[in-house]
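Quick review question:
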């Protein structure tokens, strides 16, 4: 039996790569000059991906 879960803020890119992408709040965007926080994920699946996602969201 396989359990599937959708991880929020994770996008699939070409070649099986993944990235974490989250929008900055509107009041912060002018200060940073960016609309999104984007980080390529090193892990591709399993517990390592969930752990890396949690670390990225904690920043």
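Suggested answer, residue by residue:
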């Amino acid at each position: 039996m396989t359990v599937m879960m959708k991880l929020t803020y994770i996008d699939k890119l070409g070649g099986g790569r993944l990235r974490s992408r989250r929008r900055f709040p509107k009041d912060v965007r002018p200060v940073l000059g960016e609309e999104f926080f984007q980080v390529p994920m090193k892990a591709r699946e399993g517990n390592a991906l969930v752990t890396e996602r949690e670390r990225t969201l904690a920043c």
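Why it works: The beta strands are 10-12, 18-23, 36-40. The chain has two helices and three strands.
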